Amino acid sequence: MNIHEHQAKALLKEYGAPVAAGVAIFSVDEAEAAARSLPGPLYVVKSQIHAGGRGKGKFKELGPDAKGGVRLAKSIEEVVAHAKEMLGNTLVTAQTGEAGKQVNRLYVEDGADIARELYCSLLVDRSVGQVAFVVSTEGGMDIEAVAHDTPEKIVTVAINPEAGVTDADVAKIVAALKLDGVAAEDAKSLFPILYKAFSDTDMALLEVNPLIVMENGHLRVLDAKVSFDGNALFRHDNIKALRDESEEDSKEIEASKWDLAYVALDGNIGCMVNGAGLAMATMDIIKLYGKEPANFCDVGGGAGKDKVAAAFKIITADPKVEGILVNIFGGIMKCDVIAEGVVAAVQEVGLKVPLVVRLEGTNVELGKKILNESGLAITAADDLDDAAKKIVAAING
Ligand code: ADP
Ligand code: MG
């Protein structure tokens, strides 16, 4: 689950990280008061969307010459003018895709005098099985380009979970970022704070780009992008409350209510599968036969009829879906439960596209019987290969 920059900064501030004063606003009316509460004379008006690259982004409605999604302002009037121009418009960045994202809230922040822009992120480094800092002196711009062109400028420091961030770890990061004086002093508290925030709240990613050295020598978190491990959200009610559903795919929101492992994709074959491995294999074989999956969907082992029906409805509600492939290996999951769920969902929402079902395993005969007797136009398949061929053929008509 992702959150907005202003929420991430509020969270990091609770842990003691240095962030600027700022106010989130949802309407132009709130802009003036927000700016007045800040020290000035420099302000920054920042679009709050769940995507990076906002500074270089463009508003669809404003044309190519208008300013981007992060704007400096030198007066309160200018803050208000920016807010008027930005709120409600659609920001397109390198990360939003062509459709862009509507800006429904802004963060009005105290402007910083920047001496250097650095990069710092924390992530779970699976190669060492530890949380690691990834830092670079080349912050503020496209870190992917730095990784590609000058990988030696990116330094990874993995943290031993038992020891936490040691003085030696901080020293490595300080050296990699070429910090000295007050900034090196600030580093001693900042990096352990970031690590604690990351582990306490089960983050999957914490990206501070840029982390800045200010003209006065101090460090400041200038941008913050945070995503949390969805599987750990059940133990963080305060973080769940930060969710902004307007930023998410409506199908994925519905799926998460049913605890379905569902990811919307760009293709046009809807898939309903049990087990992540089988779901991946199903997606692979669809591609092998020349089509693209519309989603990843793992209904899991213990799904009941209602959950199966919910998954099927989410898949059929996607206008891109031209055909559906149900691929179930009944181990813990019983084939008759799947069949009942599919039939219940189709009775409720109808079936406008071809449906191929491959069932195997526990109660397979009963499952097939339920489907056969339902009177629905279902194409049965014997195995995975047969199923993929049949759904691709059905779509190609
Ligand atoms: P994004 O990464 O989405 O483009 P950032 O928050 O990193 O958004 O902002 C882009 C750039 O805007 C930063 O690299 C920095 O140069 C400038 N900037 C952002 N916030 C401030 C601020 N509070 N004071 C001064 N400059 C800022
Ligand atoms: Mg940034």
From TrEMBL:
User: Which molecular function terms from Gene Ontology are attached?
Assistant: ATP binding; magnesium ion binding; malate-CoA ligase activity; succinate-CoA ligase (ADP-forming) activity; succinate-CoA ligase (GDP-forming) activity
Q: Which residues cross the membrane?
A: none
Q: Which cofactor does it need?
A: Mg(2+)
Broad EC category: ligase
Q: Where does Mg(2+) bind?
A: N209, D223
Q: Which UniProt keywords apply?
A: ATP-binding, Ligase, Magnesium, Metal-binding, Nucleotide-binding, Tricarboxylic acid cycle
Entry protein name:
Succinate--CoA ligase [ADP-forming] subunit beta
User: Organism source for this protein?
Assistant: Devosia equisanguinis
Q: What does the organism's lineage look like at the top?
A: Bacteria, Pseudomonadati, Pseudomonadota, Alphaproteobacteria, Hyphomicrobiales
Q: Which gene encodes it?
A: sucC
